[in-house]
Here is the input.
Amino acid sequence: MKNKRILYGTIGHVFLSVLSVIWLLPVAWLILQSFRGEPGAFTSYVWPKQLTFDNYIKLFTETSLFNFPRWFMNTLFVAIFTTIITTIVVLLTSYAFSRLRFKMRQPYMNLILVLGMFPGFMSMTAIYHLIKAMGLGQSLYALILVYSGGAAMGYYISKGFFDTIPYAIDESAMLDGATKNQIFWKITLPMSKPIVIYTILTSFIAPWVDFIFVSVIMRDSYQNYTVALGLYQMLTRENISKYFTQFCAGAVIVAIPITILFIFMQKYYVSGVTGGSVKG
Here is the structure.
């Protein structure tokens, strides 16, 4: 039995190693292309004949046609404010469904479950006209509203985490005169660091990688593009041959903030996904 466990473990590690190599190959190829000095979108070889930093330099200096620095800052602005709003809304909603008992609690939860089954892009035309009627068309504030507007629908994982915290802690605090508001901010939230980090990460990624909604809302407002829509313009038929390597450089830069966040917060992210428990 021991030999079988060792054999199965070895096979599992080899299998996972092969999958890791397959997963990393496209990433490695993208990084290599970002340093390629030869023009053109497609080559018959993998390793560039000439390595250069010009693609990264041009990305930040040649901004007359593709203003990548502006798009990057737009995305960062939208992502930060979306993360703040979404995190607060999700945590408050999750805590309310987990700890409070009110008449319409279960119907609300069922309604959110049903609404969550419909893809978001089904409503993008209606959302566009609503935002236009509010006078926020083609603005970064419109994107923040879109990305954080349905934040409460993502309460499931956070609620599951709050459910693992013993209610006896709340009862003890209430006996000492604490209100529900004080219990949430001063007791529950400090004990819920994993789920807070998880919510922050998922909220930050959504506007960073979105393409559909920003393309509908921004349309021809070139200076208000985010990186996802802006970089896509480099892949059009008339631009791809000249700007493909700059696109690769931009894709690498865009991945850096998210990669850094995951590296430093990985343990909290995993804890948030798998749930948590507090011994009382």
User: Anything to note?
Assistant: The two ends are 39 Å apart (CA to CA). Residues 78 and 143 are 7 Å apart (CA to CA). The chain is about 70% helix and 0% strand. The longest helix spans residues 240-274.
